[in-house]
Design goal:
By secondary structure, this protein is of the alpha/beta class. It has three domains: 184 residues, FAD/NAD(P)-binding domain; 102 residues, 2-Layer Sandwich (D-Amino Acid Oxidase, Chain A, domain 2); 69 residues, no CATH class. Helices cover 33% and strands 27% of the residues. The chain has 14 helices and 16 strands. Strands 1, 2, 6, 7, 8, 9, 15 and 16 form an eight-stranded mixed beta sheet that branches. An eight-stranded mixed beta sheet has the order 3-5-4-11-12-13-10-14. Strand 12 and strand 13 form a beta hairpin. Helix 1 runs parallel beside helix 3, helix 1 packs parallel to helix 7 and helix 9 crosses helix 13. It starts with a strand and ends in a 19-residue tail after the last helix. The C terminus is likely disordered. One of its GO terms (molecular function) is oxidoreductase activity. Keywords: FAD, Flavoprotein, Lipid biosynthesis, Lipid metabolism, Oxidoreductase, Phospholipid biosynthesis, Phospholipid metabolism. InterPro entries: Dggglyphlred_Halo (IPR054884), FAD/NAD-bd_sf (IPR036188), Geranylgeranyl_reductase (IPR050407), GGR_cat (IPR054715).
Length: 434
Amino acid sequence: MSEQYDVIVAGAGPAGAQCARDLATRGYDVVVLETESEDAFPTTSNKSTAGTFPSMITSFGVPDDVVMNFTDKVVLESPNNHYTRHHPGAVLEFADFKQWLVEDGREAGAEYRFDARVTGPVMENGQIAGVEYNGSEEVRAEITIDATGPSAPLAKALNVSKLERENHAIGIEYELTGVDLNHPDFGDLSDAMMLRLDHDLAPGGYSWIFHTGADEAKVGLCYIQNDSHRQNARDGFSVDDYMEYWLDRDPRFADAERKEGVQHRGSAHIQMPGDLSTDRFMAIGDTVPSIDPIWGEGIHKGMKSARAAAITVEAALDKGMTDTSAEQMSIYDRLWHRDVAPNQRRRLLMTELLYLADNDRYDRFMEDLHGMDEATMRKLNNGNPLAVANLLHFDDRALLTEFVRDKVAIDFDGFFPKPFNKRRSNASAAFEFD
């Protein structure tokens, strides 16, 4: 006999655990199904760089004891240049953070089942009525939420989110000791989160160094299966090969050593999503494609999507007047596009444009950044096309023409406003990251 709940959440990552935490606090009967064993949790899912900013810490009450290091600046690097912006942040111990979310949710009343691998939806009358896990066991609920990340077995079965392999991001990260964080050839990375744009190290992607305290750092890279990767990739190189290539050549790692047994791998879809919900169902967190694949702060966006899902559950199950129709569940879609990923299409287009640039353009971009004011950066991050137009060099025209032809299939003059052709601007096409 199947057990009945108000809500099933598949996946105990930040989005799933936060959603269960919110729902349990509101008094809903919620069960979370997690593939990993409780003793090992999280191991295979411990894959995030876990960089975040004060807005996330404050909004979700994250305790200081899951923070590895509080940072005070963000550094952007190109092959031969860098830019530093003073901006407070925090590097989380991701495993501790996830365990805190689980325990806090349990204290609020959420039930967790570990060693519970979701295998598919339980369907009744063409709608999802529950979840099958571990091959033959099942549990039922009024609403089911898929927070399993790119595997997304429920979302795929219900044709929600429409995840594709195109523009699929693949990443690896080590934790190192003995890192020279203030090498004279580079910007000072003490108490910093650094992002590097360099096709030699991560073609079609980026690499990073996040200071975690003393002489230690999280060091990783990610490439995206995009046109730029195909043009710049080294024959036969895997993501592991690129990582070793970087570690062997960067003098900041000359005396560095890897922490034994600490390696994180991850992947993400970088694309516009389809629908995010249907009858009795929502897809949250990494089950939805990434929003900002460079400085995405995916933890915060996953947590915000969890909160939007909890609000939708409350509207659907309010005071016993159950309405779990696709129309009612689409409240989540509207909240997601308004609060979690506003202007996502424009932001993704700008990010694709950035990846098309070559290494020389990245060096020039760092020079451009020194001339940007805070207001312009905020507009860029919000996907404002006028802000992009104002910050392009005239000789970027060939790059833009290629981008518009290949990516959006419209005429260049239809993509950016006419006045752009008559003025000279002083910065490049990319955006700042909050």
